[in-house]
Amino acid sequence: MLKMAAKQNMPGLYPLTIFLALVCCYFFHDALALKQQQTLRFRKDGEFKILQVADMHFADGKTTACLNVFPSQMATCSDLNTTAFVKRMIQAEKPDFIVFTGDNIFGFDATDSAKSLDAGFSAAIASKIPWAAVLGNHDQEGTLSREGVMKHIVGLENTLSQLNPAEAHVIDGFGNYNLEIGGVEDTRFENKSVLNLYFLDSGDYSRVPSIPGYGWIKPSQQFWFQRTSQRLQREYRSKPNPQKGTAPGLVYFHIPLPEFANFDSSNFTGVKQEGISSASVNSGFFTTMVEAGDVKAVFTGHDHLNDFCGELTDIQLCYAGGFGYHAYGKAGWSRRARVVVASLEKTESGLWGAVKSIKTWKRLDDEHLTAIDRQVLWSKNSVGHPFAASWMCDWNLKLLFLEH
C-alpha cells in the first residue's frame, strides 16, 4: 500500500521538479548574462592596462614539479611559483584586465581538471580584476572535454569569458567572443567602444587525416569575426558622437599564425629561440584581419621560448613568452608576462577622447620584476612624425622612474 501511495503521489512531483530546474537554469544564465555585460572602460587617467598570461600549464599545485629550472630550484619549485608570479604581476602593474591565452592547465598532469582550473585562475579571481581566457591545445587533455573546460571557465567569478557568441548559431570551437572597452566615464565617449578585444579558439590538433599538426581558426570563426568587426566599426562611426576611422582592435588566441615565421632578429623586438609551431596549413585569418582594417595587434602563446613582437602589413604579431613553471622553458631564462597599455588622446574640450597609442613591455619573474622591450605597437601619429622619437624617450624615462 505504501508503494502504491508513493507511486500515486509521484506524478505531482514532476511538474514541481521541472519548474525548479527551469528556475535554476534561468537564474544561472541570467547571472552569466549580467556578468558578461559588465562594463569595461578606460580609467580617469585615460589609460587601460591589460596583463597577458600565456601558458600557465597548471596541474596539481604544490605536488606538480617545475620544468627547465636550475637543479638547485627543483626542491622548492612547483605550480605555486606560477601562482606567486601572477600575484606579483597584479600587485606591480595593477592591470584593469587580465587575459589568459591558453594552455591554462596541462590536462595530462591534472588529476581533476576543474580543480586545476580553479587553482590556476585563483589569483586573478581573488584580485577582483575582470579577466578572460581562451583555450590552448592542452587544456582539454584531462578530465574535462574542450567544451567542458570552457564552460567551467565561464562559470568562475569575475570572468568575462564566454562559451561562444549568442548571435553565431554555428561556429567552430569554444571561447569565441568579443569585449568592448568604453571611453572614460562622464565624457562623450563613455558609451562608445574605443578599444575592441577579440578572443578566438585556435583549436588544438588537426581533425583532418591528411593535414598533420595543430589546429587553426576555421571559416565559421572568421565569418563571425568579420561580422563583429563590421558592426563595431559601424557603431563607432554612428551617432551619438560619430567618429572618423575605426576604433583599434586587439586579438587574442593561443596558436600563432604561419605569418609569425616572417620575422628574424632584424625586424622584431624580443627573442626567437624556437620554431614557429603554427598549423601546417594557412587558413587565411591574417588576411581576414588585414581586410577588416581595425586590428592593430595579435597576442598569442604556445611557443614558450619566443617573446617577440613584429609588424607585418600594419599588424603587430606578438608572443607573450612562457609564464608557467610546469611549462617547458629554459633554465636561466626567466618566465615572463606581457603588459599592454592603451592611452587616450585629449579632445579640444580637454576631455579624454579616442585611443591615441598602444604600448607594450614584458616583465620577468626575477628579483626586481624587470621590465624589458618597451615599444609602441601603434600610434595615431605617423612613424616618421618629428616628435615621435622625443615622445618615446619621455615615455621610457617615465617607466624608468616608476621602476625605481
Automatic annotation (TrEMBL):
Compartments where located: Secreted
Domain Calcineurin-like phosphoesterase as annotated: residue spans: 48-304
CDD domains, per the entry: MPP_Dcr2
InterPro entries: Calcineurin-like_PHP, Metallo-depent_PP-like, PAP14/16/28/29
Keywords in alphabetical order: Glycoprotein, Iron, Metal-binding, Secreted, Signal, Zinc
Cofactor: Zn(2+)
Entry keyword Transmembrane helix: no
Gene3D superfamilies hit by this protein: 3.60.21.10
PANTHER family: PHOSPHATASE DCR2-RELATED, PHOSPHATASE DCR2-RELATED-RELATED
Subunit-level organization: Homodimer.
Family under the similarity heading: Belongs to the metallophosphoesterase superfamily. Purple acid phosphatase family.
Protein's recorded name: Calcineurin-like phosphoesterase domain-containing protein
Protein species of origin: Erythroxylum novogranatense
